[in-house]
């Protein structure tokens, strides 16, 4: 009977939430789990559960805050290592990098709503608002 040998690197798999934590997209594994359950992470274009297996070559769409990153899984890790090791686990697509740069440029040009407001209005400000019927 011929014996088939499989390369362990080809069959390496780990949980989606564990990989996201090991790749340093989230500080805590519970944060990664909540993001996956909340639909912020898509595996190969489809919403997945935290326990879904991730393997090399999979495509992940990760939404963190206002940023959307599209990455290709290059290696599998289920333990959190240094940042330099974590960067070798994935490769961000060129389109994703360009989109994040455009979004960053737009945020620097446009002022955030309420950026000119600094805390509570003073007594003088409240009197002015009352005079103009703003309240």
Shape: elongated
Give a count of the beta strands, DSSP E runs of length 2 or more.
7
As a percent range, the share of strand residues is 15-25%
Please bin the fraction of helical residues: 25-40%
Largest sheet: 5 strands, antiparallel
Please mark out the parts with pLDDT under 50 across 5 or more consecutive residues, or reply none: 1-6
Instruction: Quickly count the helices.
Output: 6
The largest sheet has its strands arranged as 3-2-5-6-7
Compute the CA-based radius of gyration.
Answer: 22 Å
Estimated structural class: alpha+beta
CA(first)-CA(last) distance: 85 Å
Return the string of H and E elements: HEHHEEEEEHEHH
Average pLDDT for all residues:
87
Salient structural properties:
alpha+beta; 135 residues; disordered N terminus; two-stranded antiparallel sheet
Task: Write a brief caption for the model.
The protein has 135 residues and is α+β, with helices and mostly antiparallel strands. It is built from 6 helices and 7 strands.
Could you explain how this protein is built, in words?
The chain has 135 residues and is an alpha+beta fold. The protein has 6 helices and 7 strands. The strands form 2 sheets. Strands 3-2-5-6-7 form a 5-stranded antiparallel sheet. Helix 2 crosses helix 3 (29-37).
